[in-house]
Amino acid sequence: MTLITGSADQTAKLWNVETGAQLFTFNFDSPARSVDFAVGDKLAVITTDPFMELNSAIHVKRIAGDPADQSGESVLILKGPQGRINRAVWGPLNRTIISAGEDAIVRIWDTETGKLLKESDKETGHKKTITSLAKAADGSHFLTGSLDKSAKLWDARTLELIKTYVTERPVNAVTMSPLLDHVVLGGGQDASAVTTTDHRAGKFEAKFFDKILQEEIGGVKGHFGPINALAFNPDGKRYGFLLLQINVS
Amino acid sequence: MGDVLIMNEIDATANRLGIDLLQVDLDSIQLPPGEDLGIISDDEDVYEDDDQEVESGFGNIIVVDNLPVVPKEKFEKLEGVIRKIYSQIGVIKEDGLWMPVDPETQKSLGYCFIEYNTPQEAELAKEKTNGYKLDRAHIFAVNMFDDFDKFMKVPDEWAPPEHKPYTPGENLQKWLTDEKARDQFVIRSGTDTEVLWNDARHLKPEPVYKRSYWTESFVQWSPLGTYLATVHRQGAAVWGGANTFNRLMRYAHPQVKLIDFSPGEKYLVTYSSHEPSNPRDANRVVINIFDVRTGKVMRDFKGSADEFAVGGTGGVAGVSWPVFRWGGGKDKYFAKLGKNMISVYETESFTLIDKKSLKVENVMDFSWSPTDPIISLFVPELGGGNQPARVSLVQIPSKEELRQKNLFSVSDCKMYWQSSGDYLAVKVDRYTKTKKSTYTGFELFRIKERDIPIEVLELDNKNDKIIAFAWEPKGHRFAVIHGDSPRPDISFYSMRTAQHAGRVSKLTTLKGKQANALFWSPSGRFIVLAGLKGFNGQLEFYNVDELETMATAEHFMATDVEWDPTGRYVATAVTSVHEMENGFNIWSFNGKLLYRTLKDHFFQFLWRPRPPSFLTPEKEEEIAKNLKKYSKKYEAEDQDVSMQLSEQEREKRRSLKNEWEKKISEWKRLHEEEKMERQMLRDGEASDEEEEYEAKEVEVEEVLDVTEEVEE
Questions:
Q1: Which residues of chain A make contact with B595, given a CB cutoff of 8 A?
Q2: Domains defined for chain B, CATH in brackets
Q3: Which of A232, B422, B475, B566 has a CA positioned 20 to 30 A from the CA of residue B640?
Q4: What does the alpha-carbon distance between residue B259 and residue B324 come to, in Å, rounded to a whole number?
């Protein structure tokens, strides 16, 4: 089994999960942020941050069956979005790539031609940076979370905006339960403001929403920092979170 | 409405260019001189007359009559006096002051012409100086030059005026007749100001009127709720109506900063402070008192900020507002604290009663009874103990001292009147013998009893600091928050109980509370003990009749707490002092959260006040007795609404779930269709069910090292 990682050291790497060995390094001119394997694992999409004069971009790489045959060449490079692209994932059947980032617009690109197929509407879409994106298990819909204190549910094929979940704090991480119709939002203070507020002020919670009714059903309190990543255990019965904790001494 | 449309355009352009309008300093924008880009300035709008006369070219000239007739030697002096008066109002044109002379007597004719650069200055001068008393024999009669033409045209025959049919104005009190007996409130968030009904049955607010840029700074209700006042660069305005808010009147006062209504809504006081020409002088203060209905200026006050910032509480930058405090009922009197005096004016003639102020050496503070024409005042200690501090009650207009008490070793003093004028509590901070610290006590005056008896009250622990004090509205009790620890105590006292009719007695002390503010219900009996600021929004709803807590709750980071005028609901709000979670909550009187509304950049929440009830005390008693009968009807209505609500709620959920089911089956169908293709992408592996994997524990053996031991 192969793992792909992206790093601020301006590379993305392929790893052998069983042995932990590095298989291949893709080199970029700016930090690599988001990575995702396509259905069938023969393709991967990697996003790079804007860096100095360089704009952010979405790179598509072919993944060889045998690591020895792996090439660093990009099959396709997509450009256009302003600011950082925080997430890029594959659409159903790898026909499309879905990207979202700092300019608050969700985009759907055609993998074959590289053309921009759809963009989310400015009026109904997010108003601030989209921080996170989570796909449904069957890839038919996905959830975006944004600093505008909301999360939105979209149809992955048509980019129709289906649901909006409103909360009181900027959203840093989102996930959907594979078992029940729940959506979880994690957030709190914008990461850059974390050190200047006390933990009570940030009131960090993971909030559970009813996926269909868009209503808040509960929250898990007790986090002492803003939540930056969430994921459900695959059996859907537990979830884990990642906190960004900055210790000032 | 045109204003609103233009603003929408500006908003759209700003959005397009990515400019945040709230950050733009509009005052720093300067148009090239002479350029107005075709935009009518707001100032012009205020002064524009609706039926403008045809320009005669003399619109900026006034005629000042009733001047003293003086010989040649005194011309210069008289001219100087006139010039001094009139150049304060506007800029007199070069050679614009002409005092004609009688060719025969060589004396002035007793009138003069003054020409300004604009008709506005001339109009203002006429308004301000007409009736001005130069001395007892000479009261200025000022007219617009053009008016003479008009007056000359008056026919010699009197013709009776046309009979205009009576057009009744709108019923400005219509909101009080709401069938559902709801109350209104106004909120300001971002650039919007909105008036809404508090619909507690439906658990949400219902909009009444909304407007962007309705005010340029804040809004304020008039004391009986009839008007909503807005504040702009050129002055203030009031709005009202039967079902909506129309502009009823404007009050010109450039750069107005603060406003205050008289309690009966008859008058509006406006205040502005201006930088002096000499930076070392204090600011110049302008205060106008307008008649609310007609917009006429009844009186103005101009002077240096020093004259208005007297007493202990004046700030560095300005004055303690309101400068004029109203009293005596029916907007009869207003008074201002001065240096060694209290200036009391009456509203018949807008002059000082007895034509002079009430002289009180060293007076520090004063306060009106809320109901009677009585002033309480405080004079601090003088001359290192030679003259003790004192609190006095003075009757207006007689200026007779009704009661007085000397107080010794006083470091500070604060006066609290009970809402019906029955009691006055004076909080006195006294120095200990060593003068190193202070301890607090209360002097309690029973105003309505013969000889106004005074009672002294000390807390159980004398050294406790007083954090808050509040009388029960319309009642006989008061609450005090006291103590030095992070969680102070709250004590309740009554001025009259069954056991002690003429003596104050303690009802209870609640220990260790997270509270620093007291909010009594306007009808008494219930109180919200709130922990604001450092306590981050703790709320305790307490029943003072039963002396028990009804509910404890929290509105995290709440900055404001306000009861509705009926005492049925409590609003708590988080304003833009904090960056996040701005908005307001509505609670029932006993602490149940009814609904909450989030609004970013939240600035104000104000309940619309109600005028006092028109019911006689007898009628009120009858209703209280038969409450069960009356409440049955409302309970039935409430039941209906709540069932309707659940039905609506259920319907909404059903339709949402149906829509979702449709989407899910659509997606399932597509997923099935694409199944073959997916398998191909995975090189023929049918691993759609990859999501369902088991975690298996696998034992892996790894050969780390091989050593051979050879037995020798």
A1: none
A2: 3-26+41-152 (3.30.70.330)
A3: B566
A4: 11
